[in-house]
């Protein structure tokens, strides 16, 4: 009997296991293996990692990716922090509407998003023309196709996601706490500094790590905006495996492993904090 | 405290305007006849939509996206519901392991996944590079986290263990109990996760571009290529895409509330 159940379980799990091994595990292992090979694929070496981390070109790409992820996450976080708090103070109907709407716009990323921003702020975009009519030539100080432009677009796709992730956390702050704090003579600012933000802190850090990973892995938005011109880690990986010039899959693999490790790091922090958060609640 | 209500309203309104602006501009562009040197369009037209929906290249791209997504989704629904169910019922020790595996795709961005897939399937014993099957496999993996969460949660909500026990006491075989008792009860949850996965798949660009870009033009690849050719047509594609996402979200919400109501009724009856 027991043996029959085991056999049945194996057969039932087989298709899933095969697909996961074939399309997730094997490719990841092959990629890690590849990253330790020399450019001709014959000998094992750390050459690719050394190139990735020391060559000014590629290390700049890594630093740029880290920077834009940090900036866009911080700015997106601050906006979402204020907005989602304001949402909780609205009537239930508006709350539901805003959350549904954030959910919808969180799908707005990649190619469509880049395109929408070109319509708004591109060379003959709506705002570019509007400002020109008002006598201010925006393109003198700001270009959508520059770094500040890219940060702006990244912030846009971070905000709805951050609202969706932060909004539920505010329900952890009970009305009674505010009342008790006020009765004990705490000011609004004191309440937020001493009670509100510490209670929200795990959610804030957790959301931040998701936003950070989200920006680190983004490719399509930047690619659609200016092709391979930005020196970002994902863009570099893309050109190394399918570039216009010769492809270098080994170096691409090493950069991909570095990116994967950064994503894992962000997720690990998130997981640790969420677990702590839950224990605190119990 | 009440007197600061207006401030919150102001913040929420500003956020709404901020979020809606790019979408609204895209919509305006898709119905604008002529719009290049003025702040608002000179005249309006629906021609771009007409052109789009009669463009055989676009329709073919829609067909391709639907084909790849459908195969990946069906494979996912069938294999994952069986897997999650068997692990939940009979191999609870594997549960943490399965959960860990299903989280991996979250940590693997599209570009990284593409690197490994190209490596494995462009040479060697199985060559799938450039065929639809490499993309089907990639999409299957991409939606694993969402499908797992949905199926796992529905199994927990309906208390599948007790349902199976009851069905088997009444004389049903394990197979019959699963297909006729458990499966219909978790269908709602599965459909909701499948819809969510579908909306992710129709918006996927990165892996499609790297894995099959040259030979298999999906909606997103078509959009990318149209971007520099015809802006109006591109904006019509974006709006069509968003209409579909909106419809899916609405359907998910409806199904979700219906599902919850059923649960409530059950609880009230008990």
From TrEMBL, chain A:
Belongs to the binding-protein-dependent transport system permease family. CysTW subfamily. It comes from Paenibacillus mangrovi. Its main location: membrane. Residues 62-270 form the ABC transmembrane type-1 domain. This is ABC transporter permease subunit. Keywords: Cell membrane, Membrane, Transmembrane, Transmembrane helix, Transport. It is found in: Cell membrane. The chain crosses the membrane at residues 7-32, 68-87, 108-131, 151-170, 191-213, 251-269. GO terms for biological process: transmembrane transport. One of its GO terms (cellular component) is plasma membrane. Pfam families: BPD_transp_1. It comes from the Bacteria. It is a multi-pass membrane protein.
UniProtKB/TrEMBL annotation, chain B:
Keywords: Cell inner membrane, Cell membrane, Membrane, Transmembrane, Transmembrane helix, Transport. It comes from the Bacteria. The keyword Cell division does not apply. Residues 62-252 form the ABC transmembrane type-1 domain. GO terms for cellular component: plasma membrane. GO terms for biological process: transmembrane transport. It is found in: Cell inner membrane; Cell membrane. The chain crosses the membrane at residues 7-32, 66-90, 97-120, 126-148, 186-212, 232-253. It is a multi-pass membrane protein. Coiled coil: none annotated. InterPro entries: MetI-like (IPR000515), MetI-like_sf (IPR035906). Pfam families: BPD_transp_1 (PF00528). Belongs to the binding-protein-dependent transport system permease family. This is ABC transporter permease.
């Amino acid at each position: 009997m027991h043996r029959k159940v085991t056999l049945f379980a194996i057969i039932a799990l087989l298709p899933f296991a095969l697909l996961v091994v074939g399309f997730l595990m094997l490719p990841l292992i092959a990629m890690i293996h590849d990253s330790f090979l020399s450019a001709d694929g014959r000998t094992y070496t750390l050459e690719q990692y050394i190139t990735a981390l020391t060559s000014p070109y590629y290390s700049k790409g890594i630093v740029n990716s880290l920077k834009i992820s940090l900036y866009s996450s911080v700015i997106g976080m601050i906006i979402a922090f204020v907005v989602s708090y304001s949402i909780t103070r609205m009537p239930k109907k508006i709350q539901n509407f805003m959350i549904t709407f954030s959910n919808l716009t969180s799908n707005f990323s990649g190619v469509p998003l880049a395109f929408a921003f070109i319509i708004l702020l591109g060379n003959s975009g709506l705002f570019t023309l509007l400002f020109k009519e008002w006598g201010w030539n925006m393109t003198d100080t700001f270009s959508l196709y520059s770094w500040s432009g890219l940060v702006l677009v990244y912030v846009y796709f971070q905000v709805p996601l951050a609202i969706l992730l932060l909004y539920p956390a505010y329900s952890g702050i009970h009305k009674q706490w505010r009342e008790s704090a006020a009765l004990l003579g705490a000011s609004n600012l004191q309440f937020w500094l001493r009670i509100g933000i510490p209670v929200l802190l795990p959610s804030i850090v957790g959301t931040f790590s998701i936003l950070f990973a989200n920006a680190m892995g983004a490719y399509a938005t930047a690619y659609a905006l200016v092709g391979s011109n930005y020196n970002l880690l994902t863009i570099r990986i893309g050109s190394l495996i399918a570039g216009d010039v010769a492809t270098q899959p080994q170096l691409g693999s090493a950069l991909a492993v570095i990116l994967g490790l950064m994503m894992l790091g962000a997720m690990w922090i998130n997981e640790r904090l969420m677990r702590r958060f839950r224990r605190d609640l119990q | 405290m009440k007197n600061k209500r207006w401030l919150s309203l102001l913040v929420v309104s500003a956020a709404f305007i901020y979020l809606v602006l790019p979408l609204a501009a895209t919509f305006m562009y898709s119905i604008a006849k002529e719009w290049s040197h003025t702040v608002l369009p000179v005249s309006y037209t629906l021609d771009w939509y007409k052109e789009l929906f009669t463009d055989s290249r676009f329709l073919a791209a829609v067909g391709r996206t639907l084909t790849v997504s459908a195969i990946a989704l069906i494979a996912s629904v069938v294999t994952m519901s069986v897997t999650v169910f068997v692990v939940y019922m009979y191999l609870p020790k594997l549960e943490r392991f399965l959960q860990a595996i299903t989280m991996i795709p979250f940590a693997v961005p599209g570009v990284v996944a593409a690197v490994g897939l190209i490596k494995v399937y462009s040479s060697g014993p199985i060559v799938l590079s450039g065929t639809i099957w490499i993309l089907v496999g990639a999409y299957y993996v991409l939606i694993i986290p969402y499908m797992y969460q949905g199926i796992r949660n529905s199994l927990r909500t309906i208390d599948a263990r007790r349902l199976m026990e009851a069905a088997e006491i009444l004389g049903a075989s394990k197979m019959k109990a699963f297909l006729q008792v458990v499966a219909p009860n978790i269908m709602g949850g599965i459909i909701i996760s499948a819809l969510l996965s579908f909306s992710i798949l129709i918006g996927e660009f990165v892996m499609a571009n790297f894995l099959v870009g040259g030979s298999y033009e999906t909606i997103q690849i078509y959009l990318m290529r149209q971007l520099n050719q015809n802006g109006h047509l591109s904006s019509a594609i974006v709006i069509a895409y968003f209409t579909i996402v909106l419809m899916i979200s609405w359907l998910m919400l409806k199904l979700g509330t219906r599902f919850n109501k059923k649960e409530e009724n059950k609880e009230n009856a008990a």
